[in-house]
Amino acid sequence: MMNYIQSSRNSTIKEIKALHLKKNREAEGLYFVEGIRFVKDAVDNGQEIVKVIMSDKLESLNGGKELIDRVAAVGADCFVVNEKVFKEISDTQTPQGIMAVLKKREFKLNNVIEQGSAIVILDSLQDPGNVGTIIRTSDAANISAVFMTKGCVDLFSPKVLRSTMGSVFHIPIFEGQNIKEIAGQLKKAGYRIIASHLSGKNNYYEENLSGKIVLVIGNEANGISDETAELSDSLVKIPMPGRAESLNAAVAASIMIYETVRQKTK
């Protein structure tokens, strides 16, 4: 059943606008994704969809009619608004006319640690594009989980979500982790913690990454914290024979992540 909303003062529209703020996403346990492909991915991956808001122009877009039928079939509350109202709640400059409000998933930390073999920790990363790209790369490389420490950018901000290209639906991600506590749990479970550091003694490809390992990627400006360095079993570096002083965090993470793939499939 479609519900039609004419005014931007409608309570449902106000609820959507509120989800643009992190504090409200955390309080409600909800977030939103936007665009035909992203909403389709949410449906395909069995996400819990609370409600769907669509523009009255959606049906005329390529893939719009099919998506309308699919979201209606999952039983979510569906609301239709005019294009002006949709632009008010959209986070993009060129809205595609559909967004879905989703319930945040919860994963059991102990199960992920016990069953995993390779984990990525993001130590206070702040750039949404970097975080989203690392999550996408981790998904592609079959990483068991991504842990985000306190101080990282909000996973459910629209910019991070868009950068994951749907991988946020495929891989367990844990926010707000205390690095000391999580490192202790991982070591107890038999993981070795490998951190990227400019003063690392070994090149990353000289490390044995074929077992249960954790790769730590540090903050864009400051790298890993001193506390994280002390907790690590090994500090490694990526050789840079050229003149650049450092690599982009997402690039560095991708290089190291795919070395684990190479070693595990060797």
TrEMBL record:
According to its UniProt record, what is one Pfam family this protein matches?
A: MRM3-like_sub_bind
Q: Which residues form the RNA 2-O ribose methyltransferase substrate binding domain?
A: 32-108
Biological process (GO) annotations held by this record are: methylation; RNA processing
List the GO terms this entry assigns under cellular component, sorted alphabetically. Answer: cytoplasm
GO-annotated molecular function: RNA binding; RNA methyltransferase activity
Q: Which CDD domains does the record associate with it?
A: SpoU-like_rRNA-MTase
What are the entry keywords?
Methyltransferase, Transferase
Cell division: present as a keyword of the record? Answer: no
Return the InterPro entries for the record: Alpha/beta_knot_MTases (IPR029028), MRM3-like_sub_bind (IPR053888), Ribosomal_eL30-like_sf (IPR029064), rRNA_Methyltransferase (IPR051259), SpoU_MeTrfase (IPR001537), SpoU_subst-bd (IPR013123), tRNA_m1G_MTases_N (IPR029026)
Which SMART domains does the entry mention? SpoU_sub_bind
Q: Which family does it belong to?
A: Belongs to the class IV-like SAM-binding methyltransferase superfamily. RNA methyltransferase TrmH family.
Q: What is this protein called?
A: TrmH family RNA methyltransferase
Organism field: Ruminiclostridium sufflavum DSM 19573
